[in-house]
Write a structure and sequence with these properties.
Layout (H helix, E strand, L loop, with lengths): L1 E6 L19 E2 L2 E2 H11 L5 E5 L12 E4 L8 H7 L8 E5 L2 E3 L1 H9 L5 E5 L2 H9 L9 E4 L2 E5 L12 E8 L1 H14 L20 H10 L5 E5 L3 E3 L3 H14 L1 H4 L2
Parallel strand pairs: 1-4, 1-6, 4-5, 8-12
Antiparallel strand pairs: 2-3, 6-11, 7-13, 8-11, 9-10
């Protein structure tokens, strides 16, 4: 099994903090997001770790990772970054966004779960959203499940009442599903580079990972849901960064501040 960390974005909502550094290198305690994730993968015997970088890519230097540069990071998004790593996509893979931290048990549980294709979902996400936004009706998108399977994700959603969980940017795919992603990309890239890709309202090179997940579902791929109860943080804003520092000090400091 391999690990792919998607870390090309600029992190503009963090303002000056990420103006001259990649978001994945944000300090958390005495370490940073990328080092935390790298150690987690190594602790779970995943030694082939690939980081797709972009903004301030030259600052990402580690002997423990293979860096892949997305030079088009300013005009592309998550799926494009993943495709940049295609020469290494020849095995089962854990894909993680480069701006999240999560308890060790989440990653180890995801790896040990025998299901082939899993998308992590926080079923108790409302508590975290109250901490982030003082509301759980902000920054919402669909996440609908049926019998433990993901049936809709990333679509416009008017109410949190219609959401069965919260996508966190962490998933596990089998080699077969990775091949399917590459097949979809190769089939659609030329046609949808200058027109809207299916139901996404954007060009294919601008597509989010949730757009690809929905396309997999539409194509008949069965995606299982791996449910968690909080124990993770996403760092998009200054408030998020503060919450992540608190979360880390409470739950992870003893393992990673060494």
């Amino acid at each position: 099994m391999k690990a792919i960390i998607l870390a090309a974005g600029k992190g503009t909502r963090l303002g000056q903090i990420t103006e001259k550094q990649p978001k994945c290198l944000l300090r958390i305690g005495k370490t940073n997001i990328l080092d935390i994730q790298t150690k987690q993968f190594l602790n779970n015997n995943i030694e082939q770790i690939f980081v797709v970088s972009g903004h301030c890519s030259e600052q990402i230097q580690s002997k423990q990772i293979t860096k892949i540069d997305n030079g088009e990071y300013d005009t592309t998004n998550m799926v494009y970054s993943l495709i940049k790593a295609r020469q290494y996509l020849d095995d089962d893979v854990i894909i993680s966004y480069g701006d999240i931290i999560y308890n060790d048990s989440i990653l180890s549980g995801l790896i040990l779960d025998e299901s082939k294709d899993l998308v992590v979902s926080d079923k108790n996400w409302r508590q975290y959203w109250i901490e982030r936004y003082n509301s759980f009706e902000i920054d919402i998108e669909s996440f609908k499940t049926k019998n433990g399977k993901l049936v809709e994700i990333g679509q416009k959603c008017d109410s949190a009442d219609n959401i069965d969980g919260r996508y966190i940017g962490l998933m596990k795919f089998s080699k077969a599903t990775i091949r399917k992603i590459l097949e979809i990309w190769d089939r659609d890239f030329e046609e949808y580079s200058n027109k809207i890709w299916k139901t996404t309202k954007k060009y294919i090179h601008e597509s989010f990972m949730t757009d690809m997940l929905q396309e997999l579902i539409n194509e008949g791929v069965s995606l299982n849901v791996y449910e968690i109860n909080n124990q993770w943080c996403e760092i998009d804003t200054i408030k998020d960064y503060q919450l992540a520092q608190t979360f880390y000090l409470k739950n992870m400091k003893n393992s990673y501040d060494k």
